[in-house]
Amino acid sequence: MSESRRQTPLAALLAERIRRQGPLTFADYMRECLYHPLYGYYSRSEARRFSDYYTSVDVHPIFGRLLARQLAEMWTQMGRPETFCVVEAGAGVGRLAGHILDFAETRLPELYGALRYAVVERSKARREQAAALLARHSAAGRCEVALEIPARIPQGCLISNELVDALPVHRVVMRGGALRELFVTERGGELAEEPAPLSTCALGEYFAALGVQLREGQQAEAGLEACDWITEIGRRIERGFLLTADYGREAAELYDERHMRGTLLAYEKHRASEEYYAAPGEQDLTAHVNFTALERWGARSGLERVGRVSQTEFLLALGQGNDFADLYEPGASEADRVRARLLLKNLIFPEGMGERFSVLIQHKGVPGAKLTGLAGIAGPR
């Protein structure tokens, strides 16, 4: 075994599965690495994640507070329904939900009275942590922790924050003018990859629908699961919004000559690499979100684009209304205020998270919606 690889429990399980059943699609491999109930990366304690990467929610509660203001505006534009369902998919331990609910309770009491917030999380351990964190809001009838997204979202908004980038992807390569799929196999006691015919015709249809022609030798990811996911979400939303915050690009940029090896990365200890097989189950695997695909497949179930902006534009537009007063805790000292402003810079400055992340908002049944968070749009994106 190479020095850069570790024989994890999941690696042994997958190698045995491959020996018995044959090579895995990369999507199957990625699904096991991230979501295996015992050994998957997202089944582990959240404390481990902090040693590998941070999210916008970890930086400062301002992200959730401004998101609460955007939800309040959505609720108002929908006619202030008596019940406003907010569903957060891939909610982890409920930190973002806590920031939103705490802020709504104290600063947006009318919205809080209408909220029914569903914290959706696959990991049992993280659901238990979320239930403890949000117990007060649950007792008030404003929150519930669930394994699955509700079958119906009558009126409300589904939030996806850094979820789509972790949905499993297939990997392909252009060889001799034809698409070949990259499968995961076992060779000499180690996991390896090999090209073979496509596992499903949906892969060819995916690139054709996007108008994408890969270059000879180019590797790329196909987010079929993300397409299925957003199509299903569109069916479940009866009236309302879908807000997706993640890092990614439009298809024309994702598959251009600058991305000849695709966008898939492994993260461990704040280091990104292409060592996808180094430690199955013990490192994060992510691929850039294809926002074009989210729009195209979302439209198949009635979701229409409201707009997409960078995280910088989104947060600035929402915060400027009251000069970012939401940034500070009541009675904060000047030192605390300075620290809060420094943390905000990491969320909005281009060299931080501000320009790497985008916010896409789609709607269903709310024509003419005008949202403050999208006010920074200077033109089509």
Q: Structural class, from secondary structure content?
A: alpha/beta
CATH class of the largest domain: Alpha Beta
Beginning-to-end CA distance, first to last residue = 46 Å
Q: What is the CATH topology assignment of the largest domain?
A: Rossmann fold
Radius of gyration: 21 Å
Largest sheet: 8 strands, mixed
Q: Which residues sit in consecutive blocks of at least 5 with pLDDT less than 50? A: 49-53
Please report the number of helical segments.
15
Portion of residues in beta strands equals 15-25%
Q: What's the average pLDDT?
A: 91
Which percent range fits the helix content?
25-40%
Compute the number of structural domains: 2
Which architecture of the largest domain per CATH? 3-Layer(aba) Sandwich
Task: Provide structural commentary.
With 381 residues, the protein is an alpha/beta fold. It has helices spanning 9-21, 26-35, 46-50, 56-59, 62-77, 95-107, 109-114, 124-133, 135-139, 202-210, 224-236, 251-254, 291-299, 311-319, 334-348, and strands at 24-25, 84-89, 115-120, 143-146, 156-161, 170-175, 178-187, 190-196, 219-222, 240-249, 265-268, 271-273, 284-286, 289-290, 304-310, 357-364. Strands 2, 3, 4, 5, 10, 14, 15 and 16 form an 8-stranded mixed β-sheet that branches. Strands 1, 6, 7, 8 and 9 form a 5-stranded antiparallel β-sheet that branches. Strands 12-11-13 form a 3-stranded antiparallel β-sheet. β7 and β8 (190-196) form a beta hairpin. α5 packs across α6 (95-107) and α11 crosses α13 (291-299). Residues 49-53 have low confidence and may be disordered.
Task: Detail the topology: elements first, then pairings.
Layout lengths: L8 H13 L2 E2 H10 L10 H5 L5 H4 L2 H16 L6 E6 L5 H13 L1 H6 E6 L3 H10 L1 H5 L3 E4 L9 E6 L8 E6 L2 E10 L2 E7 L5 H9 L8 E4 L1 H13 L3 E10 L1 H4 L10 E4 L2 E3 L10 E3 L2 E2 H9 L4 E7 H9 L14 H15 L8 E8 L17
Parallel strand pairs: 2-3, 2-5, 3-4, 5-10, 10-14
Antiparallel strand pairs: 1-7, 6-7, 6-9, 7-8, 10-16, 11-12, 11-13, 15-16
Helix pairs in contact: 5-6, 11-13
